[in-house]
Each structure stands twice: as structure tokens, then as C-alpha cells.
């Protein structure tokens, strides 16, 4: 029986940008300076890889930034989310860069929420959809990373690894959630989907009979008790539809990529 590798690399995330394949990952090989840091390498052929470049490497050696995920935003800039193990409640932070290969490694970024295991991607309408182990909610950002990350409730359980994937055929967002490696039982993978404003099919406007104007929600606010407003009808759907959810169903991973119901 072998022993654990004391200097592993793990938690990879792949991104294609500027005709290059970029792999971001957590790196524990620099123990003299960092217990763990986030780095990346690039390749033009998937075989030969460039040098290791630091993306998040904190001055406090004990901090362990990890689990990086990167998305290209609607404005052409890139946003990276990552966890910061070693700080209270495990903050989930983000950083923004004009290029996916330069991240100001000494910066710890800005906190979105807590709990670790963050994931983010960009919706077709330009909004950012985000979740983490801290909650079963999905958070929506409408400002290319600036401003509020508004929680939207889902029926899905939180997960140590919870991926979000836009499905072109339906316009809905698939959620895959797994409990965690520490569970003293067979892990289950749960899946469900959620409506975040891009579903195929009909959309409807509400027109006030007296004014002839369209109903909207002020500043596209997704929170409970948001202020309704009315505007002149410009021929487009003025607001996002109400979020709709399907009940999650458990599945068991029998081999990578294959889910079977118990």
C-alpha cells in the first residue's frame, strides 16, 4: 500500500482562450514558501506545456487558496473564483483580469460568500451564475463581477463539488451536486435544473391595463420584496421570468460520466 503524496497538484480547471489551452490547478510543490497556491500552465497542442505561473500565492504561507474556476465575462474580461482555506469560515473570493494568464498573484481578491468549493460561469445574457458549498442557492451578478451577488433559491442540496452547466437545448441550467469525500458512505450525485432566464419556449409581458405600460422589477432585483415598476413597452420582454425549479433526483456514479438511478 502506498503513502499519500506530500506535495500534490490537484483541483484542475480547463479553459480555452486565445487559441491556447489553460489548466489552472492547486499546487503544493512549493512548501518552503506556500502551503498551497493556485497556478496555471498553457499549451497549444495539449502535449507540451509552458512554465508554471502563479495566480494566487499569498504572503501568509499558511493560507491555502484552491479550487479555481475561471469564466470569460460579457465585457471580455475574465473572472476567477477560488476558496481561501486557512481563513475563518473559508471565504470564497474572486479576482478580475483583462487576460486569463495574469492575475496579480499576491492579491487575495474580494469575498462573495463562505464555505469553500466555488463555481461560476457566464450565462448567454451576460449575467454571472455562481454557487458554493456555503448554500444551496445560486447567486446572480449583473455587473461583470461588480455589485451584488443576489441569491436565487433552488431545490438542490449544497455540495462539496456542485457544477453548473448551461444546456442549449432547453435554455435551463443543469446542476450536478456531490456530497463530499468525507462522507462515510457511498457518495450520491444529485442532479436537477433551474430556470435563470434563457429557457426555450414562450415568455410573457405583463401590461398594465390603465397605463398601457409594461411591468418590470426595479434594476432586475431578484430578492424577495423587490420593487415593481412600469415602463413604456419597447417590444422586448422587460424582465427575467420567475425562477422555476425541478426536484433533484439522486443518482449514483458507476463510472465517470455515467449516472444510474438506485
From TrEMBL:
Region (Disordered): 229-262
Domain of life: Bacteria
InterPro entries, A to Z: Glyco_hydro_beta-prop_sf, Ricin_B-like_lectins
Protein name: Sialidase domain-containing protein
Amino acid at each position: 500500500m502506498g503513502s499519500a503524496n506530500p506535495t500534490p497538484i490537484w483541483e484542475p480547471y480547463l479553459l480555452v482562450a486565445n487559441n491556447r489551452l489553460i489548466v489552472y490547478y492547486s499546487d503544493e510543490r512549493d512548501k518552503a514558501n506556500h502551503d498551497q497556491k493556485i497556478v496555471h500552465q498553457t499549451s497549444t497542442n495539449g502535449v507540451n506545456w509552458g512554465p508554471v505561473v502563479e495566480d494566487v500565492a499569498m504572503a501568509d504561507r499558511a493560507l491555502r487558496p484552491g479550487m479555481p474556476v475561471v469564466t470569460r465575462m460579457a465585457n471580455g474580461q475574465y473572472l476567477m473564483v477560488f476558496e481561501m482555506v486557512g481563513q475563518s469560515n473559508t471565504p470564497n473570493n474572486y479576482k478580475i483580469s483583462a487576460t486569463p494568464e495574469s492575475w496579480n498573484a499576491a492579491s487575495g481578491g474580494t469575498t462573495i460568500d463562505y464555505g469553500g468549493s466555488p463555481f461560476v460561469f457566464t450565462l448567454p445574457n451576460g449575467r454571472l451564475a455562481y454557487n458554493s458549498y456555503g448554500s444551496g442557492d445560486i447567486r446572480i451578478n449583473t455587473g461583470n463581477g461588480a455589485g451584488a451577488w443576489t441569491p436565487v433559491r433552488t431545490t438542490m442540496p449544497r455540495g462539496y463539488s456542485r457544477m453548473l452547466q448551461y444546456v442549449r437545448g432547453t435554455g435551463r441550467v443543469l446542476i450536478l451536486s456531490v456530497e463530499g469525500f468525507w462522507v462515510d458512505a457511498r457518495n450520491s450525485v444529485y442532479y436537477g435544473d433551474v430556470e435563470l432566464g434563457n429557457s426555450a419556449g414562450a415568455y410573457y409581458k405583463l401590461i398594465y391595463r390603465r397605463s398601457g405600460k409594461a411591468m418590470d422589477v426595479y434594476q432586475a432585483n431578484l430578492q424577495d420584496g423587490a420593487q415593481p415598476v412600469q415602463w413604456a413597452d419597447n417590444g422586448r420582454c422587460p424582465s427575467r421570468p420567475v425562477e422555476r425549479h425541478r426536484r433533484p433526483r439522486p443518482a449514483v456514479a458507476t463510472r465517470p460520466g455515467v449516472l444510474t438511478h438506485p
